[in-house]
């Protein structure tokens, strides 16, 4: 295929596995495997307490599976506010899900009857292991070097028009601006405007929304409190139950709800 106008690059990501001793070569699940199962295991360890790991952990637990979540960060959904992680951890505990946060996984072993993880020097056993520890961009051997880009990139940097090189646009997870379908769609619209010679608006990521579909849900938009403080912004924090009217900020700055 020959493109006269150019190419829009959006190869998407694939599940990644951390470099844990003994993990490679075992029949662990990724999120892609987990959605195809027809028989439930008696027990499962979820390695990774981010959005994907938390969503699958709660789904399987509500089907009666004994679930343990192992997270190396000090809390679940570590990209979100600490208060959200606290609420979600309590919800998981109340449902019988074991949460091991701030954990170190030394090794993984597999035998016919299941998996054994050495977590902080103690064995954690389960019939199945779901690895939900991040994703890796599908950028291997696709010819980036032929357009003047390094062929070992993990992120393709773009300008505000989503241009990555001459006649090459990039959108989606590979841009590093959020692994969300709605971000990819937003970026795609920017590319269409640029390709048609229209005048913006161009890409702006100051208010990207995201949701973790657990119960309760964890939702946010824009910067976290820590990110706002790190950026030198004035931050006002207000907590409470949100009613239909929500909260209104009367002063400049960032309000965390």
How much strand content do the residues show? 25-35%
Structural class: alpha/beta
Question: Biggest sheet, strands in spatial order?
Answer: 5-4-3-9
* Model regions low in confidence, pLDDT < 50 over at least 5 residues: 244-252
Portion in helices:
10-25%
H/E topology pattern: EEHEHEHEEEEEEEEHEEHEE
Distance between the termini: 50 Å
Task: List how many beta strands DSSP finds.
Answer: 16
Global outline: globular
**What is the makeup of the main sheet?**
4 strands, parallel
The pLDDT mean sits at 91
Number of helices: 5
Radius of gyration: 21 Å
Give an account of the 3D structure.
With 257 residues, this protein is α/β, with parallel strands linked by helices. Helices cover 19% and strands 26% of the residues. The protein has helices at residues 31-34, 51-62, 82-94, 181-195, 225-230; strands spanning 7-9, 13-15, 43-47, 66-71, 98-101, 105-111, 114-119, 122-126, 128-131, 135-137, 163-165, 168-170, 209-212, 218-221, 235-237, 254-256. The strands form six sheets. It has a four-stranded parallel sheet with strand order 5-4-3-9, with helices on one face. The relative contact order is 0.16. The model is unreliable at 244-252 (pLDDT under 50).
Concise synopsis of the structure shown:
This protein is an alpha/beta fold and 257 residues long.
């Amino acid at each position: 295929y020959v493109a006269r106008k150019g190419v829009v690059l959006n190869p998407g990501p694939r599940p990644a596995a951390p470099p844990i001793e003994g993990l490679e070569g075992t029949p662990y699940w990724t999120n892609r495997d987990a959605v195809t199962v027809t028989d439930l295991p008696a027990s499962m360890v979820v390695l990774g307490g981010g959005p994907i790991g938390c969503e699958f952990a709660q789904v399987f637990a509500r089907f009666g599976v004994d679930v343990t979540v192992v997270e190396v960060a000090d809390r679940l959904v570590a990209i979100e506010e600490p208060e959200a992680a606290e609420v979600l951890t309590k919800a998981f505990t109340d449902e019988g899900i074991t949460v091991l946060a701030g954990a170190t996984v030394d090794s993984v072993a597999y035998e016919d009857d299941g998996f054994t993880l050495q977590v902080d020097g103690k064995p954690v056993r389960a019939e199945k292991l779901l690895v939900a520890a991040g994703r890796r961009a599908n950028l291997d051997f696709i010819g980036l070097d032929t357009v003047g880009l390094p062929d070992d990139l993990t992120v393709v940097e773009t300008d505000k028009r989503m241009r990555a090189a001459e006649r090459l646009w990039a959108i989606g997870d590979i841009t590093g601006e959020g692994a969300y379908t709605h971000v990819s769609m937003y970026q795609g619209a920017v590319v269409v405007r640029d390709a048609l010679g229209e005048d913006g608006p161009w890409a702006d990521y100051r208010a990207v929304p995201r949701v973790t579909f657990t119960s309760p849900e964890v939702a946010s938009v824009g910067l976290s409190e820590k990110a706002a403080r790190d950026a030198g912004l004035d931050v006002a924090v207000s907590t409470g139950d949100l009613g239909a009217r929500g909260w209104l900020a009367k002063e400049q700055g960032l309000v965390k709800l």
